[in-house]
Q: What sequence folds into this?
């Protein structure tokens, strides 16, 4: 017995009702899932556990590639931009750029001394910098108000570790990379 071709079109309606929402959700989540594998913070370069203090301590400066990328976008970052993590959890910050929630640079830089800590969120390890004392403003931009400079994600499976400083929306994969010098 042969089926009429009209039945095939009736089968497409329930299949379409089921598949369209799944397709819509997959499109929304697809970019986020893709960034897990190919973004700057991906499963191959994130730290799985809190590194030893000896391995993380040191001076970190903005990578040359990141500096060139920021210049192309018209964002000026000082050549001295960086921070020093001391083994006793003290911190010195030098001209760390400040951005608003949309990735636009603010008219100040983070500068000063304070403390640092590493946190394991079960997905990645982050560096929390708490600036408590800022020097008198010098250079092109004044020091930002004393506050948390934001979280940085620790990258690398072993020393030397790197830090990813998110600019704007974390889902956009925009940020600056700081390397140990």
A:
């Amino acid at each position: 017995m042969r089926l009429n071709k009209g039945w095939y079109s009736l089968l497409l309606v329930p299949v379409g009702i089921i598949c369209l929402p799944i397709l819509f959700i997959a499109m929304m989540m697809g970019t986020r899932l893709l960034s897990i594998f190919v973004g700057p913070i991906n499963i191959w370069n994130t730290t799985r556990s809190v590194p030893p203090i000896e391995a993380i301590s040191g001076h970190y400066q903005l990578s040359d590639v990141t500096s060139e990328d920021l210049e192309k976008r018209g964002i000026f970052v000082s050549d001295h931009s960086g921070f020093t993590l001391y083994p006793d959890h003290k911190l010195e910050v030098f001209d760390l750029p400040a951005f608003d929630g949309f990735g636009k640079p603010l008219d100040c830089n983070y500068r000063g001394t304070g403390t640092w800590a590493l946190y394991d969120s079960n997905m990645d390890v982050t560096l929390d910098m708490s600036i408590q004392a800022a020097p008198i403003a010098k250079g092109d931009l004044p020091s930002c108000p004393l506050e948390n400079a934001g979280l940085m994600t620790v990258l690398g499976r072993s020393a030397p570790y790197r830090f990813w400083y998110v600019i704007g929306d974390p889902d956009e994969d925009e940020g600056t990379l700081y390397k140990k010098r």
Observations:
- The chain has two domains: 1-38, 53-180.
